[in-house]
Protein: Alanine/ornithine racemase family PLP-dependent enzyme
Organism: Parasphingopyxis marina
Amino acid sequence: MTGPRLEIDLDKISANARILVGRLAARGIAVTGVTKAGLGSPEIAKALLEAGVSGLGDSRIENIERLRGGIGPRPVLSLIRTPMPSQVDRIVRHADISFNTDLDVVRQLSSAAQAAGRIHGVVLMVELGDLREGIMPGDLERIFREVLNLPNIALRGIGANLACLSGTSPDAGNMAALSAIAVSMEAAFGVALDIVSGGNSANINWALGDTDIGRINDLRLGEAILLGREALERRAIDGLHTDAFALVAEVIESGIKPSRPWGTIAQNAFGETVQTADSGKIMQAILALGRQDSDPAGLIPPSGMTILGSSSDHLVLDTGGEPLSAGAELRFGVNYTTLLRAMTSPFVAKTMMKARSQQGALAAA
């Protein structure tokens, strides 16, 4: 099999999703399965749907189009990044719902939906402190009122996003604030909001705790399902698989070398000045995997081995004394950033694995 490649265990992804869907359902919260780290893979999407997610969300219309073509007219597909005005025609054709923060963009969605003869659902995102996307709470009533009156737009709910930019953690305080805003908007306008989306994988500890969830009835989960970890401290979630993805790379050189470079040391190819301790001679291996393929900083090497550095095309390891031959393969665990980059790279093959006995290569997008 070719390398580098990302091996994707669909059974483990489905098992993780099924466990989280069940635990959150007991708290009155539905799960929107986020597919962006999977590059809109229909195979991953089907694994999520089989596990009971209520719908799928992605930040790229290209991925949503891929999902629509791969899984048909159902389920509900949501664009979870504020739409680009240049893409509103595509968005109203392929996404059932979009998450929005800018009134001008919603107006353009309205015009595009009218032209397409479609009704487009909108969730308005509220700023709760992370300072990425969101309408300031004091401006929400004015925007809410106008969106309700836009033709071909169905105001489906409100939502929030935390921990992605500044690391602001979801907690009882900000989640109660979002619930209060939902109740206030419903009372002020005489509407019932279908969706009150509390956030992402960073919300897991809050959602499965003993606090009152209020009106929150949806979470958008990617990392928690795919990697089995919550997104605040990256701790493993009890009972979930943390190894549904493995990045496999091939050894192209192996031998004993000094641990410390010599000569006049300047910046490397990425503008970094590298400080290296002298550990004497080591067994070093070079793998055909670099920064153009993924993010080496998020790789988890095999036990006993240490990543020494990387360039565009090479990953250098201290093998801990274990001799390796050219052509040998090593498997690495991945964090979320590494997974995202590897899925996006055209140089990393994607291999879907199901029921352990069946596997098939998925051509890189």
User: Anything to note?
Assistant: The chain has ten helices and 17 strands. The first strand starts at residue 5 and ends at 9. Confidence is low (pLDDT under 50) at residues 357-365.
